Amino acid sequence: EIVLTQSPGTLSLSPGERATLSCRASQSVSSSYLAWYQQKPGQAPRLLIYGASSRATGIPDRFSGSGSGTDFTLTISRLEPEDFAVYYCQQYGSSFGPGTKVDIK
Amino acid sequence: QVQLVQSGAEVKKPGSSVKVSCKASGGTFSSYAISWVRQAPGQGLEWMGRIIPILGIANYAQKFQGRVTITADKSTSTAYMELSSLRSEDTAVYYCARQYSSSWSLGYWGQGTLVTVSS
Question: How far is A27 from chain B (nearest CA, A)?
Fold first, then answer.
């Protein structure tokens, strides 16, 4: 079973700053099967990135995904106030990482 | 557009079972996998399993094998998740989510169903 780890656990940044979130897999994951989600309190998760680097419909281009093999990255180029949330990676539409909380510094 | 509407909140006794429904509208129900994901209070997301309705085949996370059953009714475009032998640790919000296009990612989510297990 593939285990995903995410780092850091919490990222404290200011609006306008760049956020870099990491997702590492215990064994190689096909890029086609790596996704990123955003979740705000009291809401269902929202798909941001699928196939490691493709943005889902309606997702702003400040969100980008990259990586391959066991190391993947979600980058938010300039944080907007609505981007402060928890972010999860997922592999093969199944297991999730533990999440990274992006909060306001 | 695709919408998933789940059944309402449930309160259950330890040892009992719960069955949560997820009705889909928009899009083609049968061809896309429906997953179930749960989230305990203050915790992360936990994938439980999924079904591809047109195949009628479900697969489950190892943790839930033997305790969860996921089914789908193509005639009503509704998926179901039944969890048995409930314990307090099963208290969580349960979400259904549909596959996004041809990827395995989850692009459409239900509103969530709170299941509380308490004596």
Answer: 17
Indicate the SS3 state at residue A78. Answer: coil
Contacts of B110 in chain A (CB under 8 A): 44
Buried b (16+ CB within 10 A) or exposed e, A12-46: ebeeeeebebbbbbeeebebebbbbbbbeeeebbb
Instruction: Find all residues with CB under 8 Å of B24, minimum gap 6, and list them.
Output: B2, B3, B4, B34, B77, B78, B79, B98
Residues in chain A closer than 8 A to B60 (CB atoms)? none
Smallest CA–CA distance, residue A75 to chain B, in Å, is 19
Per residue in B49-107, pLDDT tens? 999 999 999 999 999 999 999 999 999 999 999 999 999 999 999 999 999 987 889 99
